[in-house]
Amino acid sequence: MNLRRILFYNLLGVTLVTTWWLPQFLVWSSVDDAIFWFFNQFITADHPTWTSILAGLNTRAFDKAMFVLLVVMLYAAMKRDPQGSWLKWGVIGFVMTATALVLQDIIHNLMTYKHASPTGMLDNVNLLTNLTSLPAKDTASSSFPSDHGLMAMIFAAFMWHFADRLIAWLATALVVLVCAPRIMVGAHWVSDVYVGALSIALIALPWVLCTPLASAAVNNLIQLFKRLSAALSHRHTHTRGDS
Fold it and tell me: Which terminus of the chain, N or C, has less C-beta within 10 A?
């Protein structure tokens, strides 16, 4: 267990939250407002191509496409792994998903602070949904922290731990790709992603990935599946012999 690295990441996460939470620090409010209003000025009937692109990027279909891309990236990680196998990377995917579900459940049950997206809090904003017939999302009653951002960060963190550097960097870039559309239409503040989701990732994930926990879970599950497979194969052989 690399305690020094864990504490370093945890300190970064706490510092990030502190710079956002304390009223003396106004940097995140300024960044949130500046980025929201910059993109919002282009969500008008005068920019039909841009609004159509944004609408497409904020639908469930785009979310599904991003999920497929995650699966493809996981497959690429397996193929680039000298010791890669379907079993190993299937188990890594399972442990990663379990981590995401547990962390998401903890957040939803314990985190009491919530706020709406900029389109739900500010007046005189341009709404994407007024300009498109697509079922796009441009507002949220509770946008902090960003679920999309946190899930993408969990994937990226697992790739940094288990995959090679190319896949890890691509997974990191994917965090930006997944989160940017929601920020550009005002369904999330920038701080929902890069304070809320990122601080949680920095505080929670090191205790999974910088300790033996994740690797031990993967190795133990692989051994369990191998024993079960051997037992089933042995039973099948005896059944055929008896018949």
Answer: C
For residue 164, give its domain range.
3-229
Q: Is residue 240 part of a domain?
A: no
Within 8 A by CB and 6+ apart from 197, the residues are 145, 146, 147, 149, 150, 153
With CA atoms as reference, report the closest residue to 209 among 15, 1, 14: 1
User: Any alpha helices (H) in 41-59, and if so which ranges?
Assistant: 48-57
Full-model pTM: 0.90
DSSP H helices, 82-164, are: 86-110, 118-121, 147-162
Alpha-carbon distance of 230 to 226, in angstroms, equals 6
Residue 236 lies in a domain: no
- Give the count of domains, the chain: 1
Neighbours of 205 (CB within 10 A): 24
- What's the rounded Cα separation, in Å, for the pair 176 and 87? 29
Q: What is the pLDDT of residues 9-26, one digit of tens each?
A: 999 999 999 999 887 778
Q: Are 224 and 178 in contact (CB under 8 A)?
A: no
Within a domain: 167: yes
